[in-house]
Amino acid sequence: MKAKVKRDQLKAGEVLCDHCTGQCCRYFALPIEAPATWEDYNHIRWYMMHGSVSVFVEGETWYIMVFADCKHLQSDYRCGAYETRPDICRTYTTDECEYDNDAPYDQLFETPEQIWEYAHAVLPPRLRRTENDPVSLPVVSV
Ligand code: SF4
Ligand code: SF4
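That is the input. Now the predicted structure with iron/sulfur cluster docked in place:
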């Protein structure tokens, strides 16, 4: 495993990526609509049941994050498709990359149970408990 060198410890001519394990090539994240209803949270819970999926919030924006190594990431952590890499890779820089930022989110949900627990904290109680609800809810009579 490569030693973690801090940004301000780089020697002249060194590139931060030389000390990285290709963190930015190991996932992709897409903005999603901020959940507002039980149905919304149930959808997110379903996304997360597929594994290797997290959800994070930055400011007011929610993102789904899918962990999957790019097929071109080589064992030496270099790009195996450098000449034909997508634009998003060409324009990405180390300026604000995740190299030394382990928790850059305002909120991070790593399991379906976490997002469901959060839904229970922020939404009004549902009227009925359902078989699909893994978290105990007081049943409110109608
Ligand atoms: S841009 Fe940042 S996260 Fe991506 S390989 Fe370089 S140092 Fe690592
Ligand atoms: S194409 Fe290259 S730079 Fe882009 S994600 Fe894949 S390995 Fe990384």
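The chain has one domain: 7-119.
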